Amino acid sequence: MKSYDVAIIGSGPGGYVAAIRCAQLGMKTAIIEKYATLGGTCLNVGCIPSKSLLDSSHHYEDAVKHFEAHGIEIPGEIKVNLEKMIGRKQAVVDQTTTGIDFLMTKNKIDVYHGLGAFKDSTHITISGDSKEEIEAKYSIIATGSKPTSLPFATVDKERIITSTEALKLKEIPKHLIIIGGGVIGLELGQVYKRLGSEVTVVEYMDRILPTMDAGLSKELNKVFRKQKFNINVSHKVTKVERNGAEVTVKAENKKGEIVEFKGDYCLVSVGRSPFTAGLNAESAGVKLTERGQVEVNEHLQTSTSNIYAIGDVVKGAMLAHKAEEEGVFVAETIAGQKPHIDYNLIPGVVYTWPEVASVGKTEEQLKEQGIAYKSGQFPMRALGRSRASMDLDGFVKILADQSTDEVLGVHMIGARCADLISEAVVAMEFRASAEDISRMSHAHPTFTEAIKEAALAATEDRALHI
Ligand code: FAD
Ligand code: NAD
User: Are residues 280 and 382 in the same domain?
Assistant: First the structure.
């Protein structure tokens, strides 16, 4: 039987990054993955394929709607070849997952393909083509999550689908009904809206992206309505039925009335649930919470001291970069170091266009916590860069402590905000004040100037260009 310092179950961004860091720190490391390819949800059916389709559909929309204004004329009809678009997405996924194989080899990490299950706290069986058993001094559970299902909506993977199927459809839906106006619903909804589908979003809460700053929800809602999305908030879906090629979704609105939506596809995107099936966690003494997450302490250590857990399978945001930070954190903890993660400074990004990005506290949280704050906001449309690229929607909002001016939250919506948010993360990591940001030079013309202007507005209400 092979023996390891660390065995990691699950090869998503949490697991494979943990494996690399363990190997870098000199530990003999194994990683176990039940699927044929490494990379987990993120690389195979999550972040990477969804961004590939968002990029392809964005190019198509630009060609159809915006090229002409830029003086670019394309003779003849511009058409979508969905099969080719999905094929390109798959090529990007394949290239990316193969890259993880390379990283495992480079770092001398043993890769096992098969379902990993605890026999006890130091032994794991792997059921793949054959059955194997390994011994590990420490283990890291990084088994991720799966789409949450609704008891009244049977996902048949044909017409009633999850994000996994939505990433490989064979036709463009005529009318896609999306249950859940969260991140997946809006990103994939925009893909198919751009490709020509009618898109209806049915959201339970009173706004889309309900966990983000309300100002962002309002602005994205406005832009999406301009793009002719049919958005229904405060609608609780209670029934989903399929009849041949027709799907009917019934929801209860605020007044208690039942509203009916009919389409040809229904995407169920109401969140994701921790995945521990087949892991046999109880044999190792690992406890789960009521919500099915692996229970961990502040060191991400489970109820069994030599077993840790990271990523989507534990509490916190279900984000690839959060899983990665936790992977590094646990590897360094096992190596005897004292790492730290500031969860408040893990940014959240929605890759629609305009992009939506946030870090730190929202206005709603500051109010709830009774923290006195000031706010500075600057509209993207006032920037020269925005006019040059015709990306006029959105704003940057900076929330700073009323008395100390320390930046407490940054919320932005607009072109390239997914990348712009990093400046806010750096500033907040170094506990910058709004004035600190306002006194730094920002290249002209760039979208980053909106951050400087919002900081000026927050400090002394003296934005320069509005
Ligand atoms: P996962 O990536 O889920 O990996 C877990 C792995 O463990 C899987 O490969 C699974 O097969 C394996 N496994 C499970 N049980 C066993 C077992 N017993 N034995 C062996 N292997 C096992 N996040 C972002 O930050 N940015 C994005 O843009 C983004 N886009 C997304 C788009 C979509 C459509 C979806 C669905 C998710 C997206 N996410 C995004 C979320 C992101 O994918 C997850 O937060 C991230 O993958 C979590 O990483 P993880 O390592 O915890 O788990
Ligand atoms: P989500 O939590 O973002 O959104 C789910 C939405 O469904 C919520 O707004 C919720 O109110 C709504 N809902 C729940 N039950 C409902 C019902 N019966 N009727 C109507 N609406 C209902 O979840 P998601 O969009 O499925 O995404 C899952 C996870 O994947 C998220 O945690 C997210 O962090 C991650 N993800 C991240 C990215 C990114 O970082 N860009 C992209 C995709 C997914």
Answer: no
Q: Are residues 394 and 365 in the same domain?
A: yes
Per-residue model confidence as pLDDT tens digits over 321-376: 999 999 999 999 999 999 999 999 999 999 999 999 999 999 999 999 999 999 99
Q: Tell me the longest C-alpha to C-alpha distance in the chain.
A: 69
* Helix locations, 144-251, DSSP H: 163-166, 183-195, 214-226
Using a 6 Å cutoff on CB, does residue 47 contact ligand 1?
yes
Q: Number of C-alpha atoms within 13 angstroms, CB side, residue 308?
A: 28
- Report the distance separating Cα 417 and Cα 386, nearest Å: 12
Q: Which of 272, 314, 315 has most ligand 2 atoms within 8 Å of its beta carbon, as the pocket-test mutant?
A: 272
Q: What is the pLDDT of residues 372-416, one digit of tens each?
A: 999 999 999 999 999 999 999 999 999 999 999 999 999 999 999
CATH number for 366: 3.30.390.30
Residue nearest to atom 15 of ligand 1 (CA): 143
Q: Judge if the beta carbon of residue 189 lies within 6 A of ligand 1.
A: no
Q: Known catalytic residues? A: 444
Strand partners, 140: 8, 308
